[in-house]
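testing teh design pipeline on a random one, pls ignore if ur not involved
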């Protein structure tokens, strides 16, 4: 009985061993491998055909001439325009009056004023009545006081007068061809020019002029 059991055990062992051996050496068993990803090839798109474009004709554009615009008219605001008296004063300030000659008579309406001039000895002033323009009696009187003092090497071409707060400013202009200037005048010539004008302006009380100053193109004249 023991012998039979040993035979059965031995047979069982042999059967199991054979079974294991057949499993290890089974050629049909597949070895697992990592899956291979295959990128599908992309078919290149065919080059598009070139379409011939027939050029169209350039349309003709007609440009109508632009009418020339007229210059706009400028309208002056009456409120900004200077008053006649201010415009007159400005004109007188910017322009020089010509020195009249002894034989020249004033034009238009005139008034009589007293003008002082130096005597031939340069000692004293003598007065005389003369006619001057009625609209500019002060400037006219200065012109009469200055007349006759031009000589061969010194001459005045013009003057202008302004009065403010009792002070008269007489601006003189030496002629371009004058060989001498105001600073080269002698004491007698100073009296004949500056003295005569000062005496004439201060002696006419209705003008209320107390002081007279002289300038040459705006620069103070010292004499």
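output:
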């Amino acid at each position: 009985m023991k012998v039979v059991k040993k035979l059965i055990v031995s047979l069982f062992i042999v059967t199991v061993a054979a079974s294991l051996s057949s499993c290890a050496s089974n050629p049909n068993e597949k070895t697992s491998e990592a899956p291979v990803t295959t990128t599908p090839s992309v078919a290149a798109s065919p080059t598009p055909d070139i379409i011939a474009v027939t050029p169209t004709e350039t349309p003709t554009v007609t440009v109508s001439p632009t009418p020339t615009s007229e210059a706009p008219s400028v309208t002056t605001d009456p409120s900004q325009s200077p008053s006649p008296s201010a415009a007159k004063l400005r004109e007188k300030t910017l322009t020089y009056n010509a020195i009249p000659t002894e034989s020249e008579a004033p034009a238009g309406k005139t008034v009589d004023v007293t003008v002082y001039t130096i005597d031939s000895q340069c000692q004293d002033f003598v007065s005389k009545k003369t006619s001057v323009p009625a609209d500019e009696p002060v400037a006219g009187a200065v012109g009469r006081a200055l007349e006759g003092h031009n000589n061969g090497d010194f001459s005045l071409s013009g003057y202008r007068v302004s009065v403010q707060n009792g002070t008269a400013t007489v601006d003189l202009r030496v002629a371009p061809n004058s060989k001498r200037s105001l600073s080269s005048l002698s004491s007698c010539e100073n009296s004949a020019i500056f003295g005569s004008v000062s005496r004439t302006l201060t002696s006419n009380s209705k003008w209320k002029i107390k002081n007279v100053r002289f300038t040459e193109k705006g620069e103070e004249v010292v004499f």
